[in-house]
Amino acid sequence: MGNFFSNRVFGCVVIKSVNSNYNADFTHQPRTLPDGTIYATDKALKYTIRNYFKKAYPGEKIFYLKTLNSELQPRTLDESYEHYFGTYPKEKDAQLRRTVARNLFECLDVRLFGGTYAGKTSLSIHGPLQVTHGVNRFVEGVIYFEQIMTPFRNPNVSSAESTMSSLGTQSKLKEGHYVHSFSLNPHNSSDLVELCGGKAISEEDIARVKKALTQGATLYDSAAKVGTENELMLWVQLKAGSMLVLPSFVDLIRIGEDRKIDLSRVTEILERSSVAKQIETIELYYDPTVSEVIGAPSSSVLLELNP
Predict the structure, then answer these.
(1) Exposure of 136 by Cβ count < 10 A (0-12 exposed, 13-18 middle, 19+ buried)?
(2) CA distance linking residue 275 with residue 286, whole number of Å
(3) Burial, 65: exposed, middle or buried (Cβ in 10 Å; 0-12, 13-18, 19+)?
(4) Are 127 and 189 in contact (CB under 8 A)?
(5) What φ, ψ does residue 36 adopt, rounded to 5°?
(6) Which residues touch 280 (CB under 8 Å, ≥6 apart)?
(7) First to last CA, the chain
(8) What's the half-sphere exposure (Cβ side, CA atoms, 13 Å) at 1?
(9) Is pLDDT at 1 greater than 60 in this prediction?
(10) Distances (CA, A) of 303 to 138, 167, 209, 260, 285
């Protein structure tokens, strides 16, 4: 492992979704708030990150990602533990919790996001990286439906239609630009890491999560999510020891009909003298060929999404 990463970070990720369904509800439609605003849960972004870790770093353990047993069934929590770490520990009570916690910190996603373990023992790990729901900040939010045909008939239909290929329906979002805000505080889990002797978040972990935050959604290319891509990532890293608190960037970012990503209100906050003096670096990741960004912080370093 590399050196312990100790700086606090604030930032946001913009996910573009065109004729796609980034995050469906249980009716298979893009999720909407009561007022009709399109949104995605934090779990949607975290899934793309975990999936990226699994594909890009096959040697890393990713605990909170579905795996299958020999009968092609999802493993239980304790079965997943044994899959990664072998036979379940024989210790009791506090020693059992320490052993399980120490092993869980071997997993990259646990070091970053934490997690709840409610199996043969119970643990709650407060992860350093916290992600908000993503809200569509594009001025439109048009959901449409289309019929699709399968090559198979439905044997449960008793009418004449039982001899026909069955039909289905899928829904897509015409265009959306979801903004997730995030914060990173490495000290969230430092006490538990010290108590159990686990691995702390490292510089290498941070380099990997930056990759996932800029490429994970694009990499995850399922039938429903074709057209969903990483569009932008803003990384605001504070100086060591800074206790500065910044608001969520979700409502501060505007994306108009011209599809320009307006960071002006974020920049207004970051360039206040009381704030700017506590910032170590601002990194802005996007592809200027594909996206246009206005109002970016003057001190930001422009980096490629896919170097």
Answers:
(1) buried
(2) 24
(3) middle
(4) yes
(5) 95, -5
(6) 7, 237, 238, 239, 240
(7) 24
(8) 16
(9) no
(10) 23, 45, 15, 18, 5
Neighbours of 81 (CB within 10 A): 22
Q: How many residues does the chain have?
A: 307
Q: What is the DSSP letter of 100?
A: H
Residues facing residue 144 across a β-bridge:
172
For 228-250, what is each residue's pLDDT tens digit?
999 999 999 999 999 999 999 99
Nearest residue to 187 via CA among 200, 198, 196, 206? 200
Q: Are 245 and 273 in contact (CB under 8 A)?
A: no
Q: Given pLDDT bands bounded at 50, 70 and 90, which one contains residue 158?
A: low
SS3 at position 303: strand
- Interaxial angle between packed helices 93-104 and 77-85, expressed in degrees from 0 to 180 and rounded to the nearest 10: 70
Token code pair at residue 79: 């079965």
Residue 213 and residue 100: Cα distance in Å, rounded? 28
Once rounded to an integer, what is the mean pLDDT over residues 270-295?
A: 97
Query: For residue 183, how many other CB atoms are within 10 A of its CB?
Result: 19
